[in-house]
Specification:
The chain is built from nine helices and six strands. The chain is of the alpha+beta class and 364 residues long. It has two domains: 250 residues, no CATH class; 95 residues, no CATH class. The longest helix is centred in the N-terminal third of the chain and has 43 residues.
């Protein structure tokens, strides 16, 4: 029991450190990406924090297996380098104890990732898409501050977007307003001295512009079709401000609903959710024999080896999903062939060590 706890502590200590580092790195990367894309400008601080938190939650499907794989390779590899592994075996802690200890950790991680991938992941994407849809559909002036661009990102399956800029804001009125949007394949630009927004009891929204100009330009084609006009007052009717519909997006579709689909990209999403927990367990088990075969020159060499291995593996999983979405792969192996490859490597590494010593000597 003492040896088992020591092995677990050797593995779990770097695991939590690596996981916290990767989560912090992902949060910083996700926030900077959202800011560079302009989406953060269109969000309230609460919406921005919610999106980053939900994206980080979904990223745990990759970060947890990655961190556990690195922790096992570096932890057990360090035991082998310092000869502590020999001392553990001399005190009755053989390969079976190592496998059972790590398998227990891998099984718990597998259950965690299974819950995340199968149940929590679609709920997280539903919330993310709901926020995106609310921003995309909503031209609420409460979001707009003077001197800042309000950028409405395009939703899936739609073309174009909307940009609003105001020089300053006083109460509910925007001054020196610029609006750019795409309407039926035509670029529309509005310049106005001021603008306000009205919301009716039925949720119908209306933007009121005063003293300005409206331009409509074709993206390509005959420039003679371009036109503009000057106006004293112009009213732009918008849709009702009700609960946004996240849309029929596969990432937000429930796993149960995906299980009945025959559409290739939905099948790829369904199988990908099932493959995530399986990947977690296989990587945890594979890390044990790899920790012995990994470079023994030092901790950093083992770390580089593990990182390169994971990069190659996750590129293969991305390739498997792409092939499934394009209909190149059949339902089986589908997206599971990278996991089958992991299983084959695992069996190939432990098979010689699992054979009885007498048979190995006889064969030699």
């Amino acid at each position: 029991m003492i040896l088992r706890r020591y092995v677990l502590r050797t593995v779990m200590r770097p695991f939590f450190g690596i996981l916290l580092f990767l989560v912090a790195l992902y949060v910083a990367w996700g926030a900077s990406k959202l800011i560079r894309a302009g989406g953060a400008i269109s969000m309230t601080p609460g919406e921005f924090a919610t999106v980053i938190a939900l994206q980080s939650q979904v990223a745990l499907e990759v970060l947890v297996p990655f961190s556990l794989f690195l922790a096992i390779i570096t932890g057990l590899g360090q035991l082998a380098t310092t000869q502590e592994a020999l001392a553990i075996r001399a005190n009755g802690g053989g390969d079976r104890m190592l496998f059972s200890s790590v398998a227990g950790v891998g099984l718990m991680a597998m259950i965690l990732i299974g819950v995340e991938s199968i149940w929590l992941r679609p709920q997280a994407y539903q919330q993310i898409y709901a926020i995106d849809a609310a921003i995309d559909q909503d031209t609420d002036f409460q979001r707009i501050e003077g001197g800042e661009f309000y950028i409405s990102q395009t939703t899936e399956g739609e073309q174009g977007g909307r940009v609003i800029f105001a020089d300053r804001r006083e109460d509910d009125t925007l001054y020196q307003v610029f609006v750019a949007r795409t309407v039926n394949g035509r670029n529309e630009f509005i310049f106005a001295q001021d603008a306000t927004q009205q919301v009716a009891d039925d949720g119908q929204r209306q933007m009121d512009f005063n003293q300005g100009y409206l331009y409509q330009l074709v993206e390509q084609g005959d420039a003679s079709r371009d036109w503009h006009l000057a106006f004293n007052e112009m009213h732009l009717m918008l849709g009702p401000q009700d609960d946004p519909d996240p849309g029929n997006r596969r990432k937000s579709t429930s796993t149960e609903e995906l299980s009945y689909s025959n559409v290739p990209y939905q099948v790829a999403e369904f199988q990908g959710r099932l493959a995530a927990p399986l990947t977690t367990l296989l990587l945890a088990l594979l890390a044990i024999p790899l920790s012995r075969h990994a470079p023994r020159t030092g901790r950093y060499a083992r770390l580089i080896f593990a990182v390169v291995f994971m990069i190659v593996y996750y590129n293969l999983t991305s390739l498997a999903r792409t092939w499934m979405e394009l209909g190149i792969m059949p339902l089986f192996p589908g997206v599971f062939w990278p996991q089958l490859l992991l299983l084959a490597i695992f069996v190939g590494l432990i098979w010689p060590a699992s054979r009885p010593r007498a048979k190995r000597l006889g064969a030699h």
